[in-house]
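Morning F.,

Quick status update on the modeling queue. The single chain you submitted on Monday has been processed. Sequence for confirmation:
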Amino acid sequence: MTLSVTLDASPEQLKFLWQDLKQKQPKLRIRNAAQQLGVSELDLLLTGLGESVTLLKEDFAQILIDLELVGRVIALTRNEQVVHERHGTYVDFTVNKAGTMGLCLGEIDLRAFLGYWHTALAVEEPIVNTDKQRRSIQFFDIEGTAAHKVYLTDNTNEAAWNDIIAKYLREDQNHSFIAQAKPKKAYPNSGKVTAEQIRDPWSKLKDVHHFQAMLKKLAIDRLEALQLVGKDYATQLTRDAAENTLQLAAMQKLDIMVFVGNGNIVQIHTGPVSKLVRTGPWYNVLDPDFNLHVNTEEITDCWLVKRPSSDGTITSVECFNGKREIVLTFFGARKPGQEELSGWRSLTDKLERLS
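Structure tokens below.
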């Protein structure tokens, strides 16, 4: 239930309402609390300014570059349906000249789209039933939605972490956030494009990264393209395809790539998955260096997608939510110039038969 009364609440009133909600629902996560209170996650965090929350400068890319100095951390990226957590070090984070796109390759593998990033915070939260604090640096977009979070661990250089907080500390710790809506993507040709108009450019793809440019030129969304292109390129799978993909990969001890994005950033895990656990609607990977949490009840469409490339056919499993947004993607582990893993093709063949 959303308490819309909080839309006009002062920071003091919002802080009281949040504290009251936490007492009544101690396990409630901040993202869900924000939804219940009818505000953004950033709005809630800002009620802790001067106490548990510190404003940092909007030097988002430079902060991510400097995080290499702190060593191993947890990088967390999520959308409404999927949470992706990866232990590792930020190595050689680079940014384009315009400062709008960032790239990190390694244990922590990121594609950052910085154009709508808005606020950076240092946050300290009490860990339940302990006297310890969970420390993080969190980035938010213009809507007040979390873009990316970085958590300190026992293996992090805490002195270097403190140095980063001090270096990027904002002098003015007063912050009045007014959410702005991101421009909505327009698809003027939706419902007007034929299968052949999609199949022709699809068949000529040389790189999977050219797929988005193809969609932009056609002016349709991704799901419409999959629905129209034909079963030799895209086959609809059962809604439990994400769970089946993880189970088959674990059984085969197969290295896979797991992509999760939210419009601000894409985070990627490459490697095997092992410990799989179901908790209510959530299907989880709980490995030492990689955690994935998928709300399978909110995955509405899953597709097996085949794209031609200069390295041969590249196959992916793509999962969508009810808003037609892609929220989770699987590939077989590979690098440019390499063919797809035969084990991955075997796995996807099994998924296709299950459908």
